[in-house]
Amino acid sequence: MREIHVDTIKAKLSELCIEATHVLPDDVRDGLRRAEATEKAPLAKQILVEIIDNFDIAQREMIPLCQDTGTTVVFVELGQDVHISGGSLEEAIHEGVGAGYTSGYMRASIVAHPLTSRVNTGNNTPAVIHYDVVPGDELRLKVMPKGGGCENMSRYANFLPRAGKEPIIEFVMRTVEESGGNPCPPLIIGVGIGGTSEYAMGLAKKAVTRGVGSKSEDEEIAELEAEMLEKVNALGVGPQAVGGINTALAVNILTYPTHITALPVGVNIQCHSARLKEAVL
Amino acid sequence: MAVERLSDLEVRLTTPVTDEDVSELKIGDHVLVCGTIYTARDAAHNRMVQTLDAGGQLPIDLKGQLIYYTGPTPARPGHASGAIGPTTSMRMDPFTPRLLAEGLKACMGKGNRGLEVQAALKQYHAVYLMAVGGAGAMLSQFIKKIEVIAYEDLGTESLKRVEVEDFPAVVMDDCEGRDLLNEGRKQWRDTEKLGSYKPSEKIIVAQG
Asked: What are the φ/ψ torsions at residue B172 (nearest 5 degrees)?
């Protein structure tokens, strides 16, 4: 049994929020640089240059990459041999997020009630938290500030069990094409196949966290990722939908066993400002 | 003329925007915006339209103005602005025709507009610009000054007056009803690789 105090968690969360919103991960930077190098449409290329300038300036001047500093999505992997001391883990996460967003000059974008009052909570809390309990005595925290423009373009569908891959490819393409410039392409597209409706959507979001340049360990699925990426880029939507050959930087797929009657597919759309930062306590 | 053509692809637009300026701006133009612009998002648009519906007076005269859809992050001490990139324009679609009727000549955000807004841009002779979404730090470098002029209670969503210099954007929808999402896609799509997938001729962008 290892003890971790809530104050340690709070401080780490605050740090992760600030770093995630200001410093773009290296794999995403590399993906954007590759896109700029390969882009054929002149206006699309100009936009990619501006996007590359953006991550350089954000880090140098400590200005958030995007004014939409997102819903703070926190993935928690809690080792089953960890004991959290000094208070509630959940409260510590929210307090850490609130402290980070306030001291880091980030935007508060969360409203307390989704339907009625829609009053801003003032410090971007509460976070959206996903817990996994895993073997071991470590606590892994992953912070993913998720922008509204791309999150709102995410979709779910269920297909006939033996529909095969073709309608899934078309569903992903249609989702991207109909989103146009709203989700800020070039995108990372997370696809979750299997489980149940909510599980497929969760997988899709987790798939996004694999970032740019990773490959499924399942060979057939890795091929499907490559095929989807090629087809999405063949749409011609391009960076910010001005027309071009770089609409997505990556398609990442995660799968899970499912019911005999079902083929659930979730699609999570991630903008080019694919912010993610993790730490292990 | 407040539109100065710098190259085939690039123009400088100085506000206020005239009818002649609007006529000059074509889809795909890279625009450098200079002068005074205003910021407003959903909540401020809602208030402006409510005021107009009640026969009231707006806090600003919209004639010849440009409204930028953004809610910046708080500026760090010593900075003119925090991150100040565009938000999704489509959320402003229900309000835009009404403001164009009041004389607004340009709006700027990200993503695409619905068919009603595209028709209204043609009807009222106005233009829709797109600034690069997700590039709020880069865009902050072109901001000289920001001041809140109305709806202060809305926080980041308040109505602000902003001085900009060579703020980069792209003409997405022009006054002739042309839309860059549709035309750009057609030009750069790879039909062979698309296989059996049939792209839509005219995209009506999903709500959100």
From this structure: -95, -45
Burial, A50: exposed, middle or buried (Cβ in 10 Å; 0-12, 13-18, 19+)?
A: buried
A254-263 pLDDT, tens digit each:
999 999 999 9
CA atoms of B144 and A171, how far apart (whole Å): 44
3 state DSSP class of A192: strand
Mean pLDDT of chain B: 93
Angle between helices A6-22 and A89-103 (to 10 degrees): 40
Q: Looking at chain B, which residue has its C-alpha nearest residue A39? A: B188
B117 DSSP 8-state letter: H
Give me the residue from B75, B85, B130 closest to A181, CB to CB. B130
Round to whole Å and give the CA distance between A141 and A52.
27
Tokens of residue A269, six digits: 């759309």
Residue contact A177–B199, C-beta within 8 A: yes
Q: Do A69 and B73 touch (CB under 8 A)?
A: yes
Which residues does A42 contact at the CB level (< 8 Å), separation at least 6?
Answer: B9
Which residue of B184, B195, B196 is in closest CB contact with A243?
B184
Q: Are A210 and A180 in contact (CB under 8 A)?
A: no
- Is the ipTM beyond the 0.85 threshold? yes
The domains found in chain A, sorted by start residue, are 2-20+65-146 (3.30.360), 149-274 (no CATH)
Output the pLDDT for position A48.
98
Q: Are B35 and B57 in contact (CB under 8 A)?
A: no
| Residue B88 to residue A269: CA distance in whole angstroms | 15
- Report how far residue B125's alpha carbon sits from residue B120's, in angstroms, rounded to the nearest whole number: 8
In chain B, where the domains are located: 3-194
3-state secondary structure of A132: strand
Helices (H), chain A: 6-22, 26-38, 42-61, 89-103, 148-151, 166-179, 197-208, 219-234
Q: Which residues of chain A fall short of a pLDDT of 50?
A: none
Q: Tell me the three state secondary structure of residue B23.
A: helix
The phi, psi pair for A4, rounded to 5°, reads: -125, 125
Selecting from A153, A184, A236 the residue whose C-beta is nearest the C-beta of B187 gives: A236
User: In the prediction, which pLDDT does B156 show?
Assistant: 82
Torsion angle (degrees, nearest 10) of CA A118, A121, A127, A128: -10
Chain B residues near residue A244 by CB distance under 8 angstroms:
184, 188
Domain at B3-194, CATH class: alpha beta
On the CB side of B17, CA atoms within 13 Å amount to: 31
- Residue whose C-alpha is closest to residue A272's, from A192, A191, A178, A208: A208
